[in-house]
Write a structure and sequence with these properties.
This protein has six helices and no strands. It is an all-alpha fold.
Length: 139
C-alpha cells in the first residue's frame, strides 16, 4: 500500500470514528478565528432559511446536514473560542448548538414543518441573545 493510500485510509478511519467530535473536525479544518466561524455560520443559516422557510421547502436531508455543521461550529464557542469576557458566552453557544441539533433532528426525520418552526422561532431567541451579549461586552 502506498503512503498516500495509507494516509487516506487512516483519515477515513479517523473521520468515521465515533469518538471524533464534530467540533474537533471543524476546528481542525475550518477557519482559525471566531469571526470566520461566525461568517460560516451566517452562510449555514442562509442555507437553512432557503431550505426550510421558503416555498417549496428544500432538501430536508441537506438541511439536516447544514444544521449539524452549524451546531458543530457553535460548539467551538464553549471550547476553543470561548470568550470569558462576555457574560454567558458559553451558555449562549451551548443553547444555540442544542437548538440547531433539534432542527437537524426534525429535518432528518422529514418533519419539515417542525424543523421550519424550530428554525424560525430559534433565530430570534438564540442569534439575537448571543449577538447582544457580545456587543454589550464591547466586541
Amino acid at each position: 500500500m502506498s503512503r498516500a493510500s495509507t494516509a487516506t485510509a487512516l483519515l477515513l478511519v479517523a473521520c468515521a470514528s465515533p469518538t471524533a467530535a464534530p467540533a474537533d473536525t471543524a476546528a481542525a479544518v475550518g477557519p482559525q478565528t471566531w469571526l470566520r466561524h461566525m461568517e460560516q455560520l451566517d452562510v449555514h443559516c442562509s442555507e437553512l432559511h432557503r431550505a426550510l422557510l421558503q416555498s417549496p421547502q428544500g432538501d430536508l436531508k441537506q438541511a439536516a446536514a447544514t444544521a449539524q455543521q452549524a451546531a458543530a461550529t457553535l460548539a467551538l464557542g464553549y471550547g476553543r473560542f470561548e470568550n470569558q469576557q462576555v457574560p454567558g458566552f458559553a451558555r449562549y453557544a451551548r443553547d444555540a448548538e442544542s437548538w440547531l441539533l433539534q432542527v437537524a433532528l426534525e429535518a432528518r426525520q422529514h418533519h419539515g414543518d417542525l424543523a421550519a418552526d424550530l428554525f424560525r422561532t430559534g433565530r430570534e431567541r438564540h442569534c439575537t441573545a448571543c449577538h447582544d451579549a457580545y456587543e454589550r461586552a464591547g466586541r
